[in-house]
Amino acid sequence: MRRRDLIVGVAASGLSAWPPVVRGQQPKVPIVGVLFGGSAALLRQAFPPFLVGLGELGYRDGQDVTIEYRIAEGQYERLPALASDLVGRQVDVIFAGASPASLAAKTATSTIPVVFSIGADPVARGLVTSLNRPGGNVSGTTFLSIELTAKQLELLHELCPNARAVGFLISQAAPDAAAQTSRAEAAARVLGLALHVVTARVDSDFEPAFAALAERHAGALLVGGDEYLMSRATRILELANSHAIPAVGGIRPFALAGGLASYGASFAEALHQAGLYAGRVLKGTKPADLPVVQATQFELVINLKAAKALGLTVPPLLLAEANEVIE
Hints:
Elements: H1 20-25, E1 31-36, H2 40-46, H3 48-56, E2 66-71, H4 79-88, E3 93-97, H5 98-108, E4 114-118, E5 138-142, H6 149-159, E6 165-171, H7 177-191, E7 194-200, H8 206-215, E8 220-223, H9 227-231, H10 233-242, E9 247-249, H11 252-256, E10 261-265, H12 267-282, E11 293-294, E12 298-303, H13 304-309, H14 316-321, E13 324-326
Helix pairs in contact: 3-12, 4-5, 6-7
């Protein structure tokens, strides 16, 4: 008999409940703990490539491996307790998505292997001692994030050339909020745009933020790269649409949720590699022997449906360059 539970922020799915006699006769099924700072909905969209990578090493979810999820739903302060819960469960490896979860996992255990996937320098974050020789019990994959802020603002300008004032929404809880803001301000100066920075720490901050953008006549919006904001994409886009403000984000799920466009590193590539690393760890490889890998693919997604609703014409060159066009 099998039982699948999902307790958002506290527990996970894929647990097998075998009768005691049968359990004793079965080989131990390894457990992968997943620690995620964003929402369950965002994880469902982004996570399949990890499962593919894991499966390529012979670990199929629900058959050869059990996966337990601990999901913070954007409340980063819950991550340390959720990480400790996974450690108490004695999982065989922890996959941690993004910097806050990765740091929480590293702090919670020095023995259980941790595989991360983050949009930041893991050496600067204190996760590993070097990219080639991570050391300790932690390794994983990285992808460019804040480095693409200027490119994302350029994309927004190309899509909304008449907007001379643009907004930049950033999460106050994002570890690199200051760096993202600084890059956005520098890019705006180069483009000759007036940049209005608004922040959000909790959901109730969104309405005042958009009211401020409307008051300043912002004609477009760039949403900063952060799990919390991407997990709230639906709410952000509801408010953006109500104010007729076109919005661009950094990951594909943002465009899928109704955003005008997204440009960023391929989550699919990074998570697939993380799944492969988790599988190698389960086969006995130590994280210290797995060099940190950087994702090299980037994806531009244009939501033509959203553009038409906003009365915008997407330049043909952008459409030709897009990896995906939503119609």
